[in-house]
Every structure is written in C-alpha cells, then in structure tokens.
Amino acid sequence: MSINTEQFTAANKATVDSLLSVANTALASAERIAALNLNTARAALEDTVSGVKSVMEAKDPKAALAAQTALAQPAVEKAVAYSRSVYEISAQTQQDLAKMVEAQFGDFQKSMAGMVEMATKSAPAGSEGAVAAIQSAIAAANSAFGNMNTVAKQFADAAQANMAAVTKKSK
Predict the structure, then answer these.
(1) Range of the domain at 40
(2) Which pLDDT belongs to residue 123?
(3) Are 110 and 60 in contact (CB under 8 A)?
(4) What is the spatial distance between Cα 3 and Cα 15, in angstroms, rounded to a whole number?
(5) Residue 41 pLDDT
(6) How confident is the model at residue 167, as a pLDDT?
(7) Structure letter (DSSP) for residue 1
(8) How far is CA 22 from the centre of its chain?
C-alpha cells in the first residue's frame, strides 16, 4: 500500500486549509471581542464622566447620593449585557470550530475507510485478524469522537442555560 504524490499533496493542502480556517475563525472572534472591549471601555468612560458631572452638580448630599444611586442600575445592566455579548461571541466561535472539527473528522473517516479497503484488497491471505483489528480501532475512534462531541454539546447547552438564568435574574 503506497500513497502517491497527488494524495500527499491533497492531504497537505487540506491540512493547511483547515489550519487557515481555524486561524481565521479565531482572529474574527478576537476582533469581535476587541471591538466589544473598546466600545465597553468608551461607554464606561462616558458614563463615569457623566456620573461625576451629575454628582458635582448636586445641590446637597442627598441629591449627590441620589445621583450615584441612579448610576448603579444601568451599570449592572451594562455589565450583564457585556457578559452576554462575550458569551455569544464565544459560543458562536465554539460552534464554528466544532463544525470544522466535525467536517475534518468526517473527511478523516472517509480517508481511513478508503485506506482500510485498499489494505483489505491487497492484504495477503491470513491477515484477516490484522484487518479486523484495524477496523475495530477505527470503530473505537469513531465512537470516542461521537462521545466527545456529545459531551461538548452538553457542556455548551449547560453554559447557555446558565447564561440565560443569570440574564433572567439580573432583569
């Protein structure tokens, strides 16, 4: 069983394409988080300036306290909104990466099945046990990937439920 140059080139190209997709997804997520952080910092600065002005313009301590108190609730709401946005960006990135991994694993499964088929056809008589062991190992890998994928989805669902609960409590 030998791999020809075209198969090797195609495999390398697929690997590079996969790495580029992962890198682009990670960079897009980082850009979104950076923009969110910048906008949040800008808004926090504006809110602080506005709050300081409100407190300074107060005519008495009671009015100053009322001005400070009025700033607290919007700050909590903005913090929750920021957390929700970070979670949404992270969840979307996780979903995108999971789709890429699933697609790559599907391609890997097809490739392995093709190689096992080639090996089976060209295997010498009496090597049925070795071929069966390889097929068993591939089935175990498929099962492990399926289990890992299920656990990752359960974790994502739990995280989403927790974020929804936190958001609901803060309203």
Answers:
(1) 5-170
(2) 67
(3) no
(4) 16
(5) 95
(6) 62
(7) -
(8) 10
Instruction: Select from 147, 30, 161 the least CA-distant residue to 92.
Output: 30
pTM, full prediction: 0.63
Query: Rounded CA gap, 11 and 102, in Å?
Result: 17
CA distances from 147 to 8, 36, 103, 125, 153 (A): 30, 34, 16, 35, 10
How confident is the model at residue 86, as a pLDDT? 92
How many angstroms separate the Cα of 8 from the Cα of each of 2, 22, 108?
A: 10, 21, 14
Cα(27)–Cα(25) distance, integer angstroms: 5
Cβ pair 100, 17 in contact under 8 A: no
Retrieve residue 23's tokens. 């890198």
Residues of the chain with pLDDT under 70: 1-4, 7-8, 112, 115-116, 119-120, 123, 163-164, 166-171
Q: What is the pLDDT of residue 121?
A: 73
- Return the residue matching tokens 């897009």: 28
Quickly list H helices, the chain: 5-56, 61-122, 128-170
Residues across the chain? 171
Q: How many domains does the chain have?
A: 1
- The pLDDT value recorded for residue 1 is 44
Whether 82 and 40 have beta carbons less than 8 Å apart is answered as: yes
